[in-house]
Amino acid sequence: MTRHDPHSYADLSQGRIKHIDLRIKADFETHILNIEADYQLDEPVSGSLFLDASRIKLEEAHIDNEPIKWEFDEQDDLLGERLHLKGLEDASSFTLTFATAPEARALQWLPSVQTAGGEHPFLFSQCQAIHARSLFPCQDTPSVRFTFSAEVEVPKPLTAVIAAEQVEVDERGESRVFKFKMPQPIPSYLFAIGAGNLVFRELGPRTGIYAEPEIIESAVWEFAENEEKIIEAEKLLGPYLWGRYDLLILPPSFPYGGMENPRLTFLTPTAILGNRGQTALITHELAHAWTGNLVTNATWEDFWLNEGWTTYAETRITEILDGKDVADLMAVYDERRLFEIMERFGMDSPLTCLKVPSEGRDPDSTFSIIPYYKGSFFLKECEHVVGRERFDAFTKKYMEGFQFQSLTTEAFLDFLKGELPEVFEKLNVHGWIYKPGLSDERRRPTSRLYDEVQEVLVAYKNGTRPTKEQVADWHRYQILSFLEALPKQIPIKDCKYFEEILDLKNKNDANHYSFLYAICITSGYEEILPRVEEFLGKIGRMLYIMPIFRAMIATDWAKDHARRIFESVRESHHQITVHVTNKLLEEAGL
Ligand code: BES
Ligand code: ZN
Question: Which of 73, 111, 348, 550 is most buried, with most CB under 10 Å away?
Fold first, then answer.
């Protein structure tokens, strides 16, 4: 057999799925989605068709009411099971009837106590990278794209959403049925579903927000500038081809900051700060509408094509909307984070390459921000070589030329070479892509606002603590830069002092506390533990909680608490978070 993607059992020489009609019934008692799905193939298939599946309970498989033979004939902890449809004869469509497992990796079923309103349950999915297969059997590789329609039946008064265009809502007894269509072809990882006690509010002509009623007002204020962001993004990347751009605000256990599901970004509630301080997250997810959703990485080894390009676009849009000072500050901060993580992995680790050989690796566990920032720094160097004007023309041509396609790193490099050959003359492109670490062959970012932080840090290291006045007007990224650059171990009284002068309690920003708690733990501030435990039970964003678990594992006194705390909070976390954290603890022998 020919496998095209190390993370999928699909054999694309057999044929490709091109459309799926899904009829989904959500059972909040049993935590099961009961699904009937009609699949269409791009050309008639004879013989076998391999699909990815994970813990799917397949009940029936038919072609035009005639049963077809099937078997789960391979299985792997990481990849799930291979569903083998057998003896097909010129089949251009088939129907599967199945149920998802209550522990389907993509889904989180939240009891009402874990929602803002506290009265209704909530359901949401997270399919990237390889979890769509736990929702429905599919060729779960980003190199296959399909259009779809979906009907979702949920009990009243819940509202269901799908990352697609809503076309109709019907009543069916005690239930409501929400109907959607997605006429643009998407890869499986961009399929997304949510359901809960949701309300919708318009922001602009093509932007809006779904959220629980308790938080809709604050969300509407926080993200009021989304339309403006689309206008700026279009100037850089070309027309927005997905129709609407809405947000779904999730409960706190959502494992990411944001997920760029088409037409409907899924967002952590920790992004609502009351000061629009984290709207770069929206810029990022919105940019994915082009870099990722329109032009897609062919496999997860090419992940940097999605995230590096998106981070690059994010920095360009931020420069316009927030000004050069802020963009420069973020660039320095990003570079420092990049170094820190590369050092943790080891500068010569293959995980620090842009193209990551990932056969056998779990994309969730090897996830890091390296492809984001290293990818973005590489593209900035390309821009520098040819000048902004030519690079912008190249970017638009790339977006248009490859729209609704998936491509490998190598296909991208071919395109780059054809369009901007000087890049290959002036930069060691091969080194940037295939070699670990970070090349010296690049311009280092500098920032006036970062220099202010640096001054305070130097003084602190020399024995002088900053005053409240000195830090009072700091930008959010100055505070983050400061916390990031503090020594990992400081006197306990200074942990308290910094929380106080930086006004962290009032700011209530989980990103600040992610840094602060890691420092407190390493510094031996044992009395902080109950607060840390509360934080780890309340915040689901992995980027914020993993550094705290890592700090606990690395610190003698805290090490023994890590497993206990994890066990006490695991119920409130998403499957993916539980899996990744558990693995981290196991690797530490806990
Ligand atoms: N697509 C990613 C989230 C993701 C990546 C999910 C890999 C599963 C596997 C999303 O666009 C993202 O990058 N989110 C970041 C935000 C960003 C500003 C760094 C996050 O969630 O922290
Ligand atoms: Zn992203």
Answer: 550
